[in-house]
Automatic annotation (TrEMBL):
Keyword line: Membrane, Sulfate transport, Transmembrane, Transmembrane helix, Transport
Annotated NCBIfam families: 3a0106s02, permease_CysW
Gene Ontology molecular function: ABC-type sulfate transporter activity
InterPro entries xref list: CysW_permease, MetI-like, MetI-like_sf, Sulph_transpt2
Main subcellular location: membrane
Domain ABC transmembrane type-1: from-to ranges: 58-262
Coiled coil: none
Name used for this protein in its record: Sulfate ABC transporter permease subunit CysW
Function description: Part of the ABC transporter complex CysAWTP (TC 3.A.1.6.1) involved in sulfate/thiosulfate import. Probably responsible for the translocation of the substrate across the membrane.
Annotated source species: Phenylobacterium montanum
Top-rank taxon, per record: Bacteria
Signal peptide positions (record): none
Gene Ontology CC terms: plasma membrane
Length: 278
């Protein structure tokens, strides 16, 4: 049974201030996006979704997220397991590399891939000689997205795994369980909700990424434009209603992600609290 706790002292005033700031910086701009999207009514709103380039951008955005998010989930789970459960040389360096995308501009992340695989890059000409292209293709978009979203799953799992310790895994090994069995029957069930939360955040970031994919995409309409890039293209064409309509779709996807997260937290609140106490 949940207890109701009254906020002490100046906490209500601070809470009101936080709500005001969030309203001005988050809710108000979001409301403007939807207001501008429906500026010419429902028909004007739907017109942009009748354009082939818009559907191509939507399909490409979903494709890139569908490839990048599972790869990041697998990496994040493996990296968090190693960092939280084992001591090894270079552990601090691995943590620094995981956090690096948080501190690096997405544009720089995109430029790194261009430097490596662009026409004048270190490996670009050698790959081109074998008919392989990375930049201005879906592969480049996926690589740029993976780089930017790399820390989301790992950083969600590492604190939880460190709090859980290694007692249960050690007990399972003592009883004769193998490494894969320990991971599948002990480690993974204990972190499944944090893993799902990290995947949701990673997916939202992957679909909304602009800077890195802008550098490696070439912005070819109908081919390499993701939905955020398509919004910019429509805006530059002075199709403001279309730009805001496409932006509203991105915002809606983010709101759906937030809704799923909240629903999971509400539905499995007891299990989440239990997992965090362990």
């Amino acid at each position: 049974m949940r207890m109701r706790v009254h906020l002490p002292g100046a906490a209500p005033l601070m809470l009101a201030g936080a709500v005001l700031v969030l309203g001005l910086l988050v809710a108000a701009p979001l409301a403007v996006v939807f207001e501008e999207a429906f500026h010419k009514g429902l028909s004007g709103y739907l017109a942009v979704f009748g354009q082939p380039d818009t559907w191509a951008a939507i399909r490409l955005t979903l494709l890139v997220a569908a490839i990048a998010v599972p790869l990041n989930a697998a990496f994040g789970l493996a990296a968090a397991w190693c960092v939280a459960k084992f001591e090894f040389v270079g552990k601090s360096a691995l943590l620094a590399l995981i956090d690096l995308p948080f501190s690096m501009s997405p544009v720089v992340s995109g430029l790194v891939w261009v430097l490596l695989f662009g026409a004048q890059g270190w490996f670009g000409q050698a790959l081109a000689d074998h008919g392989v292209r990375i930049i201005f293709t879906v592969t480049g978009l996926v690589l740029a997205t993976i780089t930017v979203t790399l820390p989301f799953v790992a950083r969600e799992l590492i604190p939880l795994m460190q709090d859980q310790g290694t007692d249960e895994e050690a007990a399972a090994v003592t009883l004769g369980a193998g490494g894969l069995t320990v991971f599948r029957r002990v480690t993974l069930p204990n972190v499944r909700w944090a893993l799902l939360y990290g995947v949701l955040l990673c997916n939202a970031r992957a679909m909304g990424e602009f800077g890195a994919v802008s550098v490696v995409s070439g912005k070819i309409r109908g081919l390499t434009n993701t939905l955020p890039l398509h919004v910019e293209a429509l805006y530059n064409d002075y199709d403001f209603v279309g730009a805001f309509a496409a932006a509203s779709l991105l915002a809606s996807l983010g709101l759906v992600t937030l809704g799923l997260k909240s629903a999971l937290e509400w539905r499995y609140a007891d299990q989440l609290a239990h997992a965090r106490r362990r």
